[in-house]
Amino acid sequence: MWNHFTYNKTWLRSRFPADTAYISIIREPSNQLRSATNYYYLPQLMKIKSKNPVKTFLENPWKYKKLSEAHFAYCNVTWDPSRNFMSFDLGYPAEGAEDKERAQKYIRELETDFTLVLLLDYLDESLVLLGRLMCWELQDILYVHKNNRHYSYKTYVPSQKELAKLRRWKAVDYLLFDTFNASLWRKIAAQGKDFFDEVKHFKEVNTQVSTYCSERKKGEQNLTVAASKWSSQFEVDAEFCRIIQSVVRELLQPVQKGHERGRKLLSEKVNIKALINGQPTFKYMTERENYLHMAKSSRKTKSEGKIIKKKQNINEDTKKGGG
């Protein structure tokens, strides 16, 4: 399992078995834009001062092109979180934003590479389908809502005119979404008549387990989920609740510590903030910490130099006054 990982087919195929299942998740592009605008500090990056930065941006996305393109110098990669963000995460270069033929070819390859691309907009249907394709149990696909952020423009619905502009601006992302939206429903249609009955059952169990875990008190009796047509009986205990309530980053922490040997990778979010503040980007946290330490020392040295110079000027003025 990888979190915030940019798909690299060559790298992955050289390290994982041929029968590895590749799974990803995307969402409707206008919803993704709202989320990215908030999460990646896009108003600050694009210098938009507005109560509704999404609406302001959609008036003319091309106006902000030079500001929205974030160049990560340490790896010589340009990334635009306002444009084809999801395609970039799936390995498509930001430089190919205007190349429709190249995008179509790449997305066809993704259809072959991936076992399933889930849609956040139809998460329950996607998870039930994933469970069937992977032969998993119902308890393997249960979830609770996390990272549900609140911001003033979260529910803003762009006008048809704004959506038309966005579809041109995020052309590759829309092609990606349209392709895998159609693919998802084709696969669901092939599942048989009881698929949506299972989705209904899954939603009921997921609500039951989520409520139990959020309200569970220490020492409380375990929750028993009865067997159904689609799953066997299972128990929900404190450890199950701990896992289901964890964010991916917490679950991956033990693995990351072993592989990175203490070298924590910097997130895109931290590097975006650095660019906003006129600072360089880095791959590792230690590199950024060293830079900040050196910058602080440099400022301190300059400050001390100014104080010494000021004292010297005062002494000279005193001598002149005394003479």
Automatic annotation (TrEMBL):
Gene Ontology CC annotation, any one: Golgi membrane
Keywords: Glycoprotein, Golgi apparatus, Membrane, Signal-anchor, Transferase, Transmembrane, Transmembrane helix
The keyword Cytoplasm appears for this protein: no
Signal peptide stretch: none
Matches recorded under InterPro entries: Gal-3-0_sulfotransfrase, P-loop_NTPase
Localization terms from the record: Golgi apparatus membrane
A single MF term (Gene Ontology): galactosylceramide sulfotransferase activity
Protein family per UniProt: Belongs to the galactose-3-O-sulfotransferase family.
PANTHER family: GALACTOSE-3-O-SULFOTRANSFERASE, PUTATIVE-RELATED
Protein name: GAL3ST1 protein
Organism: Branchiostoma lanceolatum (Common lancelet)
Native organism taxonomy: Eukaryota, Metazoa, Chordata, Cephalochordata, Leptocardii
